[in-house]
Amino acid sequence: MTEPNTPRGDWREGLPEEVDRASLPSVRCVQHDSRAVEQGDLFVCIVGEREDGHDFARQAVEAGAAALVASNERAEELANLDVPVVAVRDTRIAMASVAAAHEGYPGRALTVIGITGTDGKSTTAFLTLAALEAAGLQVGLLSTIETRIRGEVIPIAARLTTQEAPVVQRLLGDMVEAGCTHAVVEATSHGLALHRLDDVSFDIGVLTNVTPDHLDFHGTFEEYRKAKGTLFEMLNEQPHGAPQRTAVLNRDDPNWEYFAVRSKARVATYGIDNDDADVRVEGVMAWSDGSTFSLTAGDDTIEASVRLPGKFNVENAAAAITAAAALGLKVEAVAMGVAACPGVPGRMERISGAPFDVIVDYAHTPEAMRAVLGTLRPVVSGRLIVVFGSAGERSTDRRSGLGSVVAELADYAVLTEEDPRSEPSEDILDDIAIAMTGAWATEGKDFERVVDRREAIARGLELAESGDHVLIAGKGHERSIERADGPQEWDDRAVTREEVARRFA
Predict the structure, then answer these.
(1) 29 close to 38: Cβ distance less than 8 angstroms
(2) Which CATH fold would you assign to the domain 11-102?
(3) What dotted CATH number matches 106-340?
(4) Is the pLDDT of residue 158 over 60?
(5) Is residue 18 classed as helix, strand or coil in its secondary structure?
(6) Please, which of 77, 236, 321, 399 could form a disulfide with 390 given CB 3.0 to 4.6 Å?
């Protein structure tokens, strides 16, 4: 394996043609954080949520940066730093392009499946990985939950829904070097809008669903949907001699046609009880730990299953099978891979040791919460108790939506912190409580507030009896809580196990 920060290509190939590349040095690494710069690096001045990289160009040069990439508007003011400055229209677009060139354009050497949607991206990514591996392929995975290269989990420091372009390209390069032929990449709206996934060279684009979310970032639902549509526009360029690119769309989602017309690629649809879908799911038999179903693709009908409960996970399984089939793989083989997938970290993950069912799930949007509670409701003989909160510095529509859904479908709730960031947790809980009381829930009778998340989990377990279900929702696989003073180590699954052991040892 190539040593970290060793170039696999030439970053200069990613620059606009009008740039005088001959006057620029080779570089060790592409950086966007001045604190990470070392001797011989390229520093790209990007504008972040709170800081502007142009303001840190001097520190980057003092740390050893050999060249800078800056916006047209600010390049001139950096000319006195005694290193070459490349002026570009958009530094984020440029960073993605030079990062891909620096790694030798690894996406071109891989068959890349991109998965986007509001809910179900990570689960569909894991199921697609299992499907491809069952077909005998060597596969890499880039997801919100974890990164894998040929089965090995690769630790990633930054908690981002999609890593910045230099990290994405480096990991794709590692996959190529490790012998992978395919990659499954979770394509978030942030990653697409911020050009973190430019130059990845997607061959298959998959849509799970689209409901309003991240409006704090995108502004409107239309802009949010447009960002996700970028994935399908990326399929428009068809490399000469390459297999036909395909947009895999959920025909049960009312937005599917919007994405179909955004792409010139072939369209393959999937759906449950939808006669117009190319891949049809029928006869779903739901159990507490998964589902079995009949799947028809063309002239072939097979019996399939998924070891995750809920109709939404049947949709995720169908998406994975459809994506694999679009690559020309045998449906029977990939369906067996999906059926064998043991589960997804932090997704409907059961915690043992209590005299009642305890489940940790990532559900942090209203639609995801509705899907999870709708799945659990029929199998709960007692009460359905939910421990949940909502993230700070995010749209207030999310927290009010969560409150309304929980008030409707749960029997009792403990409101707690999730990722408050710079917002007071009490203010976030106020917003949730207002929504719950607006949905006819009564504080003290139907819900209570416990700000500290560990104490809230303990309280949820204390309230439960045999026959009840306790759902710890909102963080799933995540390993930190984002507070005003920075991220702090946290794992809902580990904490819940500790509290179960303490109470029921």
Answers:
(1) yes
(2) 3.40.1390
(3) 3.40.1190.10
(4) no
(5) coil
(6) 399
